[in-house]
Amino acid sequence: MNDYSSPSLEYAPRGLIGLLTPQANTTVEPEVAILAPPGVGWINARLTSPAGTIEARLTDYLGCLDETLDRFANAPIGAYAFACTGASYLIGPEAEDALAARIEAERGRPLITAARAVADALDALGARRIALVSPYPAGLTEASTGYWRE
Known about the structure:
Helix content: 40-55%
Strand order of the largest sheet: 2-1-3-4
Order of helices and strands: EHEHHEHEHH
Radius of gyration: 16 Å
Number of helices: 6
Distance between the termini: 27 Å
Number of strands: 4
Shape: globular
Strand content: 15-25%
């Protein structure tokens, strides 16, 4: 396992996360503040898009991912957290894994998506079935159903 800690940061001696949050999401930062273990810090970059539909915005978030990651500049990020399940639903697990592998190979730090983190937790729990409750429009709900079936 890699050591992504940042001992030079007093407020984040166990690591600094580059948190990627959808433009109008108001819950990610408070949730991370509650869930992050002591000694882990984060800085945030907003995923933005002028598109008029959620599906188009989610696609834009992925299309501009490198540009968004560049906003962290030379901050001592240990890992990136992509806090947007909807984008993962649209591209599917295989493309999501390929994207994460590319980012890690090019930038030297992992990209952990929210959807992959949930899938890994479900695997660790031995879950065989899940119930899906979706706040999304029908098309994105269908994509999420397909993602979880895969």
